[in-house]
Write a structure and sequence with these properties.
Length: 222
């Protein structure tokens, strides 16, 4: 199976977690996009969705799914999203698609986080994938110095010769060279650096369920 077929398989499997008549939280990225396409097929069963990015909102609307502002929603029962890396405890690195801040916000108000990923995303120790950190642009260099003191090698994310600007007006630092043996502890440490908007470690609120696409089928990790 190709990586896309594995992503499609977990996206289909995640539909089992959708609660009829409710508003669902939806993540960002290529795996989440496959999930949105599956959601489109059962859109009459749900009330609508809260999106974790402008790109996701646009794709949801394209399927005729109503997108709610989070301010108008008190709670969400299920949030479905991909990950760049996930460990056996459900701690994740996210933010490869620069949507980490809204992803963390929507996940934080959701009862259950269902992570959908192809098997290559499961790791023993997080950190091979450079850790994304969203920052206030004026604080970029200051935050980079602090991240270097923590043992990382941060780099400003650039696209088409310009810094990537997130949906929130932030910049993204990608921190290489970390072997993250205490994800929740490092999440706290980085959160405390002035200028950090969000760190792409999702450990304090990790995934409750991970649907992992493998050549033997979809495996469920809880
Ligand atoms: C976006 C994310 C994505 O969930 C993560 O990058 C995985 O993306 P993909 O499903 O395309 O591999 O965190 O900010």
């Amino acid at each position: 199976m190709t990586q896309d077929e594995l992503k499609q398989a977990v996206a289909r499997a995640a539909i089992d977690y959708v609660v009829d008549g409710e508003i669902i939280g939806v993540g960002t990225g290529s795996t989440a996009n496959f999930f949105i396409d599956e959601l489109g097929k059962i859109k009459d069963r749900i009330k609508g969705a809260v999106a974790s990015s402008e790109a996701t909102a646009t794709r949801l609307r394209g399927h005729g799914i109503h997108v709610y502002d989070l301010n108008d929603v008190a709670s969400i029962s299920v949030y479905v999203d991909g990950a760049d890396e996930i460990d056996a405890a459900g701690a994740m690195i996210k933010g490869g698609g620069a949507a980490l801040t809204r992803e963390k916000i929507v996940a934080s108000v959701s009862g259950k986080f269902v992570c959908i990923a192809d098997g290559s995303k499961l790791v023993q120790v997080l950190g091979k994938f450079p850790l994304p950190v969203e920052v206030v642009p004026m604080a970029g260099q200051a935050v980079m110095r602090k991240l270097t003191q923590l043992g990382g090698k941060p780099a400003l994310r650039i696209k088409d010769g310009e810094p990537v600007v997130t949906d929130n007006g932030g910049h993204i630092l990608d921190v290489a060279g970390l072997s993250i043996t205490d994800p929740a502890g490092l999440e706290s440490q980085i959160n405390q650096i002035p200028g950090v908007i969000t760190v792409g470690l999702f450990a304090q609120r990790g995934a409750d369920v991970c649907l992992l696409g493998t050549s033997e089928g979809v495996k469920t990790l809880t």
